[in-house]
Amino acid sequence: MSIIVFGSINIDLVATTSRLPIAGETILGEDFFKIPGGKGANQAVALARLEIPTHMVGRVGADNFGAELVQNLQITGVQTDNIFIDETVSSGVAIITVDDAGENQIVVIPGANGRVNQEDIERLSHLLPTAKALLLQLEIPIDAVVAAAKAAKNTNVKVILDPAPAQTNLPDELYPLIDIITPNEIEAGQLVGFPVNNQESAIKAAKVLLQRGVKCAVVKLGAKGVVCTISEETFCVPAFPVDAVDTVAAGDAFNGGLAAGLYQGLSLDKAIIWGSAAGALAATKLGAQTSLPDKLTFDYFLEERGLGTEPV
Q1: In the chain, what are the domain boundaries?
Q2: What backbone phi and psi angles, to 5 degrees, belong to 223?
Q3: Mean pLDDT in the chain?
Q4: Is 62 exposed, middle or buried (0-12, 13-18, 19+ CB in 10 A)?
Q5: Which of 179, 252, 269, 294 is catalytic?
Q6: Which CATH superfamily hosts domain 2-9+39-90+112-161+240-304?
Q7: Is residue 252 among the annotated active site residues?
Q8: Residue 147 in 3-state DSSP?
């Protein structure tokens, strides 16, 4: 059995400057980083680092970035046989400028991610009979997300959707296909149409999502913890206090930890604790995939807090 991640694979090109340029201006930068990213790839790496058998299904371009992205996934242990090399378009790229105050300008070129289609659904379908869960995000065409969720539902595979980047209108037909949806405060607010900024509003949002057909809504509130609503039950899981330096990919780490816990047979509440632990650890390091914890670090973090990693 394995977990499948179906989604985006990007390269992030990051330039740091003392201030952001205005229109038409050329300024000198301070540093440059090239970082593997994409919410799909991040979640696949999060799972593989926790030693969960993981398949990535998606697309890259037939360029140097694409080769580098696939190789990076392979190094972390992700199975990449079902990543399609698209010769008609570039790999997905995010061009990011960050100033000393932490403000940024970002241009995202979807590239091959924007071409994900029915051919990729067919590759995914071949893997589903031996899968325990399918992780989805929203950085590929929404039609492909819906089709993937339908394919998983037809084979009784659990569907976990991270509704990011935030969107206001998901197709109505998608909600009943979702077993677990994991928005953060901003994403939850976009989905339900009212601000979500505390436990009370998170519970209200979660109940709206259940009314739309989702089986379980998990709303991430950052340092305020996590709210989970399933059927008639609602519970809250406190956040792990850490010295956060960069929350990039913390949400992806959460979904990886959550799915890893479910794969290992944990109850939902304990799997959410795993997700929270993985997200907290990711926030203590810079970068996206570079911040995702390995199993040794993850196990030690839980054991140090009296939370063993064995199913109970």
Answers
A1: 2-9+39-90+112-161+240-304
A2: -65, -15
A3: 94
A4: middle
A5: 252
A6: Ribokinase (3.40.1190.20)
A7: yes
A8: helix
